[in-house]
Automatic annotation (TrEMBL):
This protein's name: Phytanoyl-CoA dioxygenase
Region forming the signal peptide: none
Domain of life: Eukaryota
InterPro entries attached to this UniProt entry: Phytyl_CoA_dOase-like
Organism: Setomelanomma holmii
Pfam families: PhyH (PF05721)
Length: 244
């Protein structure tokens, strides 16, 4: 992933921490979430998706190896002097009109991830009362925070509703190689690190379009990947392009 950042014309160097700043990085959000530049198709992302142990875990979950994946981005949060503390953005990634467990999200953790490191925060058990919340708050279904791909953000009062029902806010800690899975109905968000570790959580579905970088319209785009995936047959099946 650091090599991928070095392919951009902004001067980022993995071995020079003075370049670990916004001025030397491609456009991103929330401290390190990358959705553009076709990153979701890069070799490093497909290597993670096609890792046999990852596929085995989802096979046990869904009862089949004929799996489909989303076209996520990646999160590489670099410790930096210009990295501001993150503000919680609790959300779910499943529309309430879709009942039951429809999607399971995951993080393939690549670095030691402790309580002070960046990474995943969840409201434990919130998926169990998700349907009840939307039944009691029907006006929320039409709220402006609904994104085009099931994303919905909660305000502080709504989060308190879940906490009042025993949903505890937890920072998930993990070791390198751990696979973290959660129901998309569970409220969650990511936070930036307060230590000098780097991390890679997940994202959602984003299209390649015009973007802003450092407050100005971005002028750099890509029509080819920096690093091509290798197991094309499995990639095409997971992408839903080729039948199993």
């Amino acid at each position: 992933m650091l090599e991928w950042l070095e392919t951009f014309p902004y001067g980022f160097k993995a071995d020079d921490h003075s370049t670990w700043t916004k001025e030397h990085l491609p456009e991103h959000m929330k401290g390190g979430m990358y959705h553009r530049y076709r990153v979701q198709y890069e070799k490093v992302i497909w290597d993670a998706r096609t890792e046999p142990a990852v596929i085995d875990a989802f096979e046990r979950l869904w009862g089949t190896r004929e799996l489909l994946v989303s076209f996520d981005g990646m999160n590489l949060t670099l410790p930096s002097t210009d990295l501001k503390p993150s503000t919680p953005w609790p959300h779910v990634d499943q529309n309430p009109n879709s009942k039951g467990m429809q999607c399971v999200q995951g993080i393939l953790n690549l670095a030691p991830n402790g309580p002070d490191d960046g990474g995943l925060v969840v409201l434990k058990g919130s998926h169990k009362v998700n349907e009840t919340f939307f039944k009691l708050h029907p006006e929320t279904k039409g709220a402006g925070t609904w994104g085009s791909f099931d994303w919905h953000g909660f305000n502080e009062e709504e989060v308190d509703w879940f906490k009042d029902r025993g949903c505890e806010e937890i920072k998930v800690c993990a070791e390198p190689g751990d696979l973290i899975l959660w129901d998309s109905r569970q409220i969650h968000y990511n936070k930036v690190p307060s230590t000098q570790n780097t991390h890679w959580p997940h994202a959602n579905i984003f299209q390649e379009d015009k973007h802003m970088r450092l407050g100005k319209p971005g002028t750099y785009s890509r029509d080819r990947l920096a690093y091509e995936p290798e197991d094309i047959d499995l990639v095409l099946k997971l992408a839903g392009v080729k039948v199993y």
